[in-house]
Amino acid sequence: MLRLEGVSAGYGAVTVLRGLSFAAEAGEVTCIMGRNGVGKTTLMRAIMGQIAVSGSVRLGGEELAGLPAHEVPRRGIALVPQGRRLFGPLTVAENLEIGLMTRGKGAVTRDRVLDLFPRLRERLTQVSSTLSGGEQQMLAIARALCLEPKVLLLDEPTEGLQPSMIAAIRQVVLGLKTTGVAVVLVEQRVSAVLDMADRVAFMDHGTVAETVARADLAPGAAQFATWVGV
Ligand SMILES: Nc1ncnc2c1ncn2[C@@H]1O[C@H](COP(=O)(O)OP(=O)(O)O)[C@@H](O)[C@H]1O
Ligand SMILES: [Mg+2]
């Protein structure tokens, strides 16, 4: 589904991604783990076309590298960025509308997404900046799902959230698998990764150091100590 080969990218003179290769398949959850600063968020930005890349970023065979950033969501890749970036003064409904418009989706999609997030349906007219942190993250995910993405990128979506919100996000992620979405989940909690992942890509120094199938990872696997430090 999504395939990166030899991707290098960074900020100005600073190179962060160094010839990185990565793949995510439809109907699977691919988790990305790695220490702070190894380039996980930069990888998300590179996929989204938000920073210039050299190398190849292909979605179902189509080359995306070099496309303007607004074209990437239209091709079917949605990002829930780290730390939530919402359109603060807009209502919940207006935020969802932005997602729907991106790929020309309508009421059917909106209903399906709101079925996943009943709390948002109760708050459609509420200004999004007045939502709780967990509700804002729900909205960020809901807005991404309004694109009916082929690939959903989630950058540490459960950071700082209550257990009930974390459980709700888990349900959504596992539900997406059955609809054939390729989910890419940046996640630091070993238990969550073992619970949700089909494969785990361990990043170090701007590359994917090792990719391991979930079935080959035990809770105390050496990879967690080596690449995450836990
Ligand atoms: N906007 C930016 N400008 C310059 N350097 C940045 C910027 N964003 C991140 N970096 C640097 O890029 C490296 C990778 O950061 P990041 O991708 O956020 O890592 P991670 O998400 O794995 O913690 C870090 O050294 C960070 O300081
Ligand atoms: Mg990050």
Topology:
Elements: E1 2-11, E2 14-24, E3 29-33, H1 40-47, E4 53-59, E5 62-63, H2 71-75, E6 77-80, H3 92-102, H4 107-116, H5 118-121, H6 133-145, E7 151-155, H7 163-178, E8 182-186, H8 190-196, E9 199-204, E10 207-213, H9 222-228
Parallel strand pairs: 3-8, 3-9, 6-7, 7-8
Antiparallel strand pairs: 1-2, 1-4, 4-5, 9-10
Helix pairs in contact: 3-6
Brief summary of the model shown:
This protein has nine helices and ten strands.
Describe this structure in words.
- The chain is α/β, with parallel strands linked by helices and 230 residues long.
- The chain has a domain at 1-70 and 150-157 and 187-230: Rossmann fold (3-Layer(aba) Sandwich).
- Helix content is 35%, strand content 27%.
- The chain has 9 helices and 10 strands.
- It has helices spanning 40-47, 71-75, 92-102, 107-116, 118-121, 133-145, 163-178, 190-196, 222-228; strands at 2-11, 14-24, 29-33, 53-59, 62-63, 77-80, 151-155, 182-186, 199-204, 207-213.
- Helix 3 runs parallel beside helix 6.
- The radius of gyration is 17 Å and the shape is globular.
- The mean pLDDT is 95.
- The structure holds adenosine-5'-diphosphate and magnesium ion.
Keywords:
230 residues, alpha/beta, Rossmann fold, six-stranded mixed β-sheet, 9 helices, 35% helix, 27% strand, globular, binds adenosine-5'-diphosphate, binds magnesium ion
Any idea of the CATH topology of the domain at 1-70 and 150-157 and 187-230?
Answer: Rossmann fold
Radius of gyration: 17 Å
Q: What is the CATH C level class of the domain at 1-70 and 150-157 and 187-230, in words? A: Alpha Beta
The fraction of residues in strands falls at 25-35%
Biggest beta sheet attributes? 6 strands, mixed
**Low-pLDDT windows of residues:** none
**What is the 3D shape?**
globular
Bound molecules: adenosine-5'-diphosphate, magnesium ion
